[in-house]
Amino acid sequence: MTTHPRRPRGAPVDDALFAELCGELFGCLPRVDQRVKAAVYVRGLLCAEGRKSVRKLAAVSGGAVSEQGLHHFVSESTWDWRPVRAVLARYVAGVVPVRAWVVRPMVIPKAGEHSVGVDRGVGQLRNAQYAVGVWAASEAGCGPVSWRLHLPRVWLDDRDRRSRAAIPEEAGAETVEGCAVSASLEVAGAWGLPSRPVVFDARSASVAAVVRRFRAAGVPVLLRVGSATRLVRVGGGAGEVAARHLVAGVRHLRRPVRVPGARSAEHTAAAVVVRLPGGTCEFVLVGHWVGRGAQPEYWLSDLVTAGPAALVSLSRLVGLVDGDFGRLTDGLGVRDYVGRSYDGWHRHVTLVSVAHAVAALSEAVLSYAG
């Protein structure tokens, strides 16, 4: 879990870009007052200092929108956040050369038990919400375009809790890993976006179950897997072998790979073609070492012809996403929503995604102008 950074004193904002982005993204909202409030909310996320309470966000508007009006707009209004996300994803894909959709988990500690989805999960010392964000990622820039909140069974099976949080009937039980897959498939397969691989950490997941869903949707993947993941080497017999042993067997084939911003000698990789136990489709397992004495990372992909260097380059996007989360997204208040409704949470994180896009693109514009 990323720790909370010191809150920035307002993110950079290019006013022309802000107006253009809000005009395009919020054009799908049915009423003029909703479009105005959406822009006020995003401006508040960008400019208010410290924790992004509704009071602070409303204060940034100089009285144009009341605290009560802004609270109602996010927590109790009827506007649909889904079209806003789809338009945002298409906008970002049009201005940034998206190389992959990166899935990033997010834990949101909570003091009480009433926020939608809050649970005391395994290993957690206090109540928390668990969510995943899907990021458009490239070396040129990263930004969240969609989110999914994991809903534990204690929320789905309790009719009273479910009703108070207005959890929709179609929301069903899924594992944490299933939550991540569902979120990424919505972006990668349902919004008419460029076909790009999905990258995420599957070390605690059932790799076979994850791969099955992505292949059924025709979406390529690059998964970080555990060293004990059982795989079958193509041409090496029918036995199942742990990933660490398969990679150790090709260790002598390690070659330097280029990673932007690092010396190529620091990063080496080797690959072996494998199958999942009982499967027929071929995958490539890549071992990636950073430094001489380090243990390798293990990455599994159905992009068999891509080559180790290309797959290592894609895997490094996870670090860029983590960096932007700590530098921008967390400071924009993605974990600051205190309402209790399912739609309210989704509206808030959607508007944070818009604020992130404004901040990241403004940095580029202002840097170029300077």
Automatic annotation (TrEMBL):
Q: Which domain of life, per UniProt? A: Bacteria
Identification of the protein by name: SRSO17 transposase
Q: Which organism is it from?
A: Actinokineospora auranticolor
Q: Which residues cross the membrane?
A: none
Family annotation (Pfam families): DDE_5 (PF13546)
Transposase IS701-like DDE domain span:
24-234
